[in-house]
Amino acid sequence: MRVPSFLCLALLVGTTASGGLPSARGQAVRSQPVLEKIVLVSRHGVRSPTQPVERLKEATGRDWPAWPVPPGQLTDHGRMDLALMGDFLGRHYRAAGLLPAAGCPRQADVVIWADAADDRTRQSGEIMARTVAGGCPVTSGSLPAGRHDPMFNALAGGAAILNRAETMRALSAVLRRDPRGPAAVRRALSTMQDVIAPGGCGSAAGPCLATAFAVDWGHGGPHLSAGPALAATSAENLLLEYLQDMPEDAIAWGRRDVPALLDDIMPAHAYASGLLRRLPAIAYPRGRVLASAILDLLDGKPVTLPDGTVIGGDARLVMFAGHDTTLDMLATIFGLDWQFADQPDRTAPDTTLGLELWRRPDGAPIVRAVIFHQGLAELRHALPLENTDRAMALRIAACPQGQDCPLPVVEKGIRAAIATHAPG
């Protein structure tokens, strides 16, 4: 999958950020940086489409496969996949010396906080709490079910306001330059048209998906025009069917070679999500609360969660269980980008972003960004994550010369950008 160039804020670099480095404990003399803390932000597990299949049929004219759970809910398969990711993360950070190799961490050392907006994120937080800590008594906290949490969406949580004029001006500028998107996106829309409604653009029966992108404003935010938006959503739904391990002949109405099809159509989803999630005018207001909390945690400062719980400054592993939108907004704020050779969705279920705090021998704190993911086959077949070197290092835009970014540089750059793009 090729990520649109105008959305790329930083380049992919390197391989593992922490494999093979010395333990953070028990060293009198050392010559390498030591890992002191990790803040993780994860997407929930595999879910069903957020709309009922009846509504999907009404929109597309196609019959969609039934799911074993109501719309937008985690599946048992998704829970199993997420548990495998949590188990891997726990093993990874025990091997790195951040968590004890034997026994349980202190209760204050591991904190899990989940978005309360949906069952899938609360359940994902519970799964991560159980698996990352290796079965130790760690719990996942959240606001009461259904409450908007400003940590995950400061706009919905009332902690920020979207500037309509600035947002629409920025979106319009992008679409004026490239109203149909890059070549990969145009091909994706054409393929989705062929899959769902061949000839639909020339018939009143429709739907017509392969149209130019356009935006309007409603319900407090921007929305894409119906055709490309439907194509992007439908592409993600086909991906979810594959990850759920549905029979291949039941996916995409009998199209052969579903993985190749997903590679072809997912650029439409990536482009649409980038427009509405990675645009700075949207990402900074939406993510200002969480980004500020992450910076405070990396700096060893306590952070008060929306329910009044305080994460101590010496917590070693803090995880926020959120959505793909959470990953997208932080990618923009921290100046990160990534893509995977074995997974066409850059924010696929279970994908987990990490901001690691390391201490150099001279005492200087540095920040490293890493991303963890599962490939198509791993998610579809619920395969254990055995490769211990799968932490992909990312370059932070504030430090273009290397992956080790001094904490003061990260803090200064991001806090200044937040003040510029999301004042107040």
From TrEMBL:
Sorted UniProt keywords:
Signal
The coiled-coil segments of this chain are none
What's one Pfam family here?
His_Phos_2
What InterPro entries does this protein's entry cite?
Acid_Pase_AS, His_Pase_clade-2, His_PPase_superfam
Which superkingdom, per the lineage?
A: Bacteria
Signal sequence bounds: 1-19
List the protein's name.
Histidine-type phosphatase
Per the UniProt record, the source organism is Gluconacetobacter tumulisoli
